[in-house]
Every structure is written in C-alpha cells, then in structure tokens.
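Lab notebook page, bench 4
Experiment: in silico fold of construct C2
Operator: M.H.
Input chain length: 400 residues
Purpose: comparison with the prior construct
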Amino acid sequence: MTPDSTTSSLELSLAQHESYVKADPHNALLWLALGDLYHRAARFEEAVAAFERCLVESPQHPAARSRLASVRISQHRFSEAEAILAGLLREDGDSAALFYNLGLAQFYQDKWREAQENFDRALSLGLKTRDNLAYLTRSLHHMGKMPEAIEFCNRWLGEAQDDQSKAYLALLEMDDGNMPRARELAQDVLTRDPENLHASTVAGAYSIEQQDMEDAERFFGNILRREPENPRAWLGLGLIRLYEQKHAEAIAGLEKAVSLMPENSGTIVALGWARLAAKDARGAETTFRQAVAIDRNFAEAHGGLASTLALQARVDEAQQEVRVAHRLDPASFGASFARAVLLKIRGKEELAKELLAKVLQQAPAEGAQPLIEHLRIYGAKQLPKTPPPRSGASSDVQRH
C-alpha cells in the first residue's frame, strides 16, 4: 500500500467513525476506536478529546486511560503520561505494555534507573520486542552500566538483525574502551549505510586517535548535517580545530558541545585548554574552575587550572592546584605541565607570557609529548565519555 493510499484509507476510516459516534454518541467503544484513529493521524488533541469522552461514557475504562497516556507520550508530555500509567499499574501490575510505556515516559525525563527497571519488568512479562530491548540498552548506557548494556544490545541485535542495533553496539564497545571491536562493527555498518550516525561517531573518534583529521572532520561533519545538536560531533569538531590550531573555531565548537552537555567536566576541560592555547589565560581559568565545581575529584580539571595559574605567574595558587591534581592522579598531565611551567618561570611574568604564546608546543619534560599531541589523545578519550544518543518516542509506543 502506498503512503497516499494509506492516508486516504485513514481519512475514510476517520470520516466513518465520526459519523458512527454522531449516530451513537454514548458508545464508549466507538469513541475509543475514533481516538485511536486520531492518534494515528497525529491529531493529538482530538484523540485526547475522544478518549476523554470514552471515559465519560465508561468511567475508569482502562484501555482509554492507557491510550490517553500514549497520546501524551506522542505529545512529549511525559510527566502526565507517567502519572496516568503509574495509576493504571497500581490496578493491573501484570501488563508488559504498560510497564514499557511507563519506561518510555521516564526515559524521556532522564529517569534512567526507573526506566530501566520498567523496561526490565516488561521483558520479564514477555515483551521481548526490539523496541523494549533497545530502550533497556539505552537506559543502561545512560547509567554507565556498560557490561549490562552490551549484553542487552547483543540481544537487541539478535532480535532486530539490523544496522541500527549493530551501530549502537559499536558505540557501546567504544565507550567501554574496546575500540578495535567498535571499529570493526562500525565499518561493517558504514559499508551499507555511510551516513549512519552512531557508526560515524565511532569512525570519527578512531580517526582522531589515528591523527587522520580529514577523515574525522568528514565523519563529524556528516553527523552535524543530519543532527545539528549532536554533542559528540561538536566535541569532535572542536578537537579537530584545536589540533589544527584554529583557536576561534575550536572554542566555538567546544562551547557548543559544553552547552549541549553542561555537566560533562571532561568537555569543559578541553574548552579550557582551547582558551589557554588562544592566549586567554583568564578565560581558561574561569573555564577550569567551572570544571572543578562540577567534579572536584577530576584531576585534569585541577591540573588545567594549575597550568593556567602557572602561566599567569600565580605561583602559590598554581602549586596548590598541582598538589590537588597529583593527589587525585599521580599521572595527571595538567599537573605535570603546570610543574614544568613553574620550574621555568619561578615568578618571571615575562617568561610566562612567552610560554603562553607557545603553549601548544610545550612538553612537561624532555622526550614527552607536546601539549597539542596530548590534547589529541585526551580529546579522543573524552568523545566516548559524552552522553549517549536518545531516540524519537512516538513511533515506539505500545498500544494496550
């Protein structure tokens, strides 16, 4: 059936049912059927009105209340849907479809733990659909439970046998630190679907690791053309521009990434280094302090702050932050870099300015990698730490 014929059939059904309820306005089942048709036609407020009329004719009708929750999910009114579904489950605690829809309503309110529990409950009640497995996987991913997420993603892949599930598995493997496996899965998907977002994210991160910035830009650029608010792609693009020493563009890309994930301290630290590379020591200081405020136990936030304080010849403050960073992580690059600067300047402000002008070429010790090379490696590691993607809700709603 073609899309036009499907639309015509839906419009015909709507017209028929509208005539039926006019002829029999107290028939609850007709109002229920009409509400379903309005929902399918994306006429959401009319669907709500039809389901509410069904409840007038048959108070507490469970199917009408469930359908009403489904419309609220389609409207992205997730808290209202959650309230309706929670009430229904107090009356009927064995409905897999209700648990799944409650999980959806919670997933899109960032209630990952509650969503995961409800998708898991739906699964235990027999709902082994690809959608339920997919959302269970995504919830576990958001919670950082990587082994469990990979386990369920493999089950999703087994059920779906499609590139969407395989690409998501590639993303999970990368986030779990298994880049060879991630790259293998991503490459397989990209041979069939060169525009796949998740596979492109993995390929872009791998390209940054390999210093292939041209390929990395191609992958992240493709993502942003299709998904302009993708935080991983903005982070990737910002890191590429930083590596190319295009400071203004790097800062713009990293600022966009931070705006999309304001609690991600690793991305904020990357932005701090970009500002430092652009000779904006005060701006870098503000940025590193922002990262410290979000996560006081992140060594590289303190190490970056130590570095920018050292480059401003604020020796005592820098030494204090070096001690904190070193205590949190003896291998902290930022702390090592700050120490190297302090050893060179010893309070000499003019020398500090000279070092700031050449900051990207600096190495903390003889034979060590310069800062720009460290930032490439550091940045590639930050990409997997950014939030996993979400997905559209309305097409996944289960009828009850």
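Observations: Residues 303 and 335 are 4 Å apart (CA to CA). The mean pLDDT is 89.
Next step: discuss at group meeting.
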